[in-house]
Each structure stands twice: as structure tokens, then as C-alpha cells.
Amino acid sequence: MIPIIETKSLSEQKSHQEAQLPAMLQYVSERSKFYSELFSKHNIDISKIKTLEDLLQIPVTTKGDIQNHNNDFICVAPSKIIDYITTSGTLGDPVLFPMTDKDLDRLAYNECISFECADSTSDDIFQLMTTLDKRFMAGLAYFLGIRKLGAGVVRVGGGIPELQWDTINRINPTAFVTVPSFLLKLIEYAEANGIDYKNTSINKAICIGESLRNEDFSLTILGQRIKDKWDIKLYSTYASSEMSAAFTECSEGKGGHHHPELVIVEFLDEENKPVAEGEPGEVTITTLGVEGMPLLRFKTGDLCSHYSEPCSCGRTTIRLGPIVGRRKQMIKYKGTTLYPPALYDILNNIEGVTNYVVEVFTNDIGTDEILIRIGCDVVPENFEKDIKDHFRAKLRVAPQVKFEDVDVINKIQFPELSRKPVVFFDKR
């Protein structure tokens, strides 16, 4: 069932958020050392901030702020903390996020309505292919959301295709929660072992961590390769520990739906000014209803466009387009501005490339240089030239290429303490 607020007009959604804003500002002013000092330093009278537009008076919060002052953001005593979560540390040191009982209820609500957005019901059985350990929020969030939905869940975790297929055969789940690239590994294993994967109980996959769509909402090469092999429904999601919320696609596949009852979202340029609809901006969030560590105007580092026309699914909320890159991962290469996803999309479509990692570093003349380390079982003749020709055709420039053993690249992608594959290394 769609929450009523998500079918109201955008102006009504805005009014709903503005009604919650004073309590949020008062809460962080009284309980957050960081925000009370921020308000004092900038002479901000929070009683005068009544509209979403008034939020522009408050400086943004950055990842660096949280990393450098983590404890100053925490708003509750240790006795109220139920669960301790850390971010994955993709762009720096992991950040601690304490969760209260109320925060866990909020997390469950978010995932429940997100699964419903992705056409899920209490009749579904989810095969959960993400970890619940290693201080990871996502696996816990999905479990709580599935439980609130009233659906079944099988906690298999990541990897081990043999165990995944054994689970499918034993329990007949209807849906996956997974990193989409792992679906290709499942298909590869099935084909190698005579498994009729096209005739199983699985009908959909809620996909996390990797983009399935281009900016025009067409499937990426990764998404299309999955669909060409296995015609199940694919739903893309965007989420982060910092917002304790998610933007999930409906069956229309036209962007992730906003939950205005949970998060105020802005889209800002490099000068922290709002961008126009349809233009890429940095996703900036203010959490609503968070007790442990609420955030005010937090810049996620993720760039995407947003759209406001109502969706035919019945929701009228803002929709987030595919993430085009992360602000800090922007590469200026031979006069061309690139983000890593553009490189991944090309590599995923080159036959013979088994796996890869992308390294960016500063060369001896002080500019960005790109090295792609490619894992191949066999390196065909002229393969390096073919790869570079693919890049020149799509991006006008070609990076350095180095061929290595598949197992070597696999070990780089999956460091011992990592909770998800790492394919981008910024050494600048």
C-alpha cells in the first residue's frame, strides 16, 4: 500500500516536511554538540527557519565534518543505543552511526514501503544476498523491512553460487536482494552446471550497490546483459547509511521514489545552490525522525538528476535519476571529465574481460592518469588495442591498460574486511 503522503501534491508534501522541521532543528540544537556550535558560530536563529527554502541559511554538512567530529553528532546516551553501524568508508574512514529502538523501527518502515514500491508483498520469499554482519546497515535494514512486510526471508549472504542455488532449490524464494553483477556469476554457474535457471521460482531482484540504468532510464550494459540471459524483473535502489532511507524504483523504472516523510532532499551544485530539475546535482539530505544521529543538509557526494512529474504507479513524489558519479571521484582526463561508472559500463560490455579494477593517480606533470587492471583468462591478439578503441569510441579518450590474472584482480576487489566489491581506487 502506498503511504498517503506519497500520493499528495508536492506542495502538500512540502508542507508536511515544514511542519516537522522546527522539531528537528530544536532537537539537534539541544542534543548535537556539532549543530549547536554550528548555529552559534554562524549566528543562526533556528526559530526563523520555517520553510525548506530557509534551510539555505544553514551551512551544509560534509563527510569530512562527520569523520572529524563523529561523536559530536551523536544525540543520545549510550543506554538508548540498540545497534552500532558504520559506513563502508568508500571515500574515507568509516563513520559510526548509533541506532536507537525508534531508529530501527524507522529503518524497518523505510524498507517495508521500499519493497512495496518494488511490487513486493507478504507472499514473497526473499533470498538475502547481503551480509548482516560487519557492522553493515543494509543487510539489517532489508531483514527488518522484509519482516515488517510480513514476507519470508532466507539469510544466505554474499557469494558462494553453489549455496545460492541449493537455497533456491530447497526453499523456492521469489526474489533476490543482491548486487546485480553477482547475478551474472549465478547465471554463469548455472550454465556450467546444467541448472535450468530460467524455470525457477525467482521472478525479481532488488538490486543494490551498482547502477542498472543510464541517465535516460534505459538499462545499463550490466542490466541488459542480465535481462538478455534471465528475464526477471530488476529494481534499482539508491540508499546510504547516513540517511537511513532508500530511493527505490517502481515497475515503471523511471527513478527511485522519494519518501518525504523520512527525508528532506536537495540537489546542489558545487557552490551549494539548488540545481534545476533534470540537471545533475549533489544529493543533500536532512533526516526526519532520526534519534541517534540526525543529519542536517548532509552532502552525500552522489550526483544525479531529479524529476517531479507524477509517476503512473500512483506516487507523486520526486524521483531520483541514476547516480552518474561521486563528486570526489570526478576525473579530468586529457581534457575530458569522467566519472567511474562511465568506465565500468564500457568494460562490462567487452567480451573477454572477466574482472577489473580502476586506478586513478596523479602523473609526473600533475594531471589525472587512469590505469585499468583487467583480469583475463586468455589475452587475445590485439586485445589492448580493441579495448582502447572501445573507450575512444565512447569517451574520446583511452586509459592505460594492464592485463593480470583473474584471481589477482578478484583478491583486490574483495579485501578481507570489505563488505562489498571495490573496483575504484583513487590514488591522487
Key descriptive features of the protein:
428 residues; alpha/beta; Rossmann fold; GMP Synthetase, Chain A, domain 3; six-stranded mixed sheet; four-stranded antiparallel sheet; 21 strands; globular
Tell me what you see in this structure.
With 428 residues, the chain is α/β, with parallel strands linked by helices. The protein folds into two domains: 324 residues, ANL, N-terminal domain (Rossmann fold, 3-Layer(aba) Sandwich), CATH 3.40.50.12780; 97 residues, GMP Synthetase, Chain A, domain 3. Helix content is 30%, strand content 23%. It contains eleven helices and 21 strands. The strands form six sheets. The chain has a six-stranded mixed β-sheet, with helices on both faces. Strands 10-11-12-15 form a four-stranded antiparallel β-sheet, with no helix packed on it. Strands 20-19-18-21 form a four-stranded mixed β-sheet. The termini are far apart. The model has no long low-confidence stretch (mean pLDDT 93).
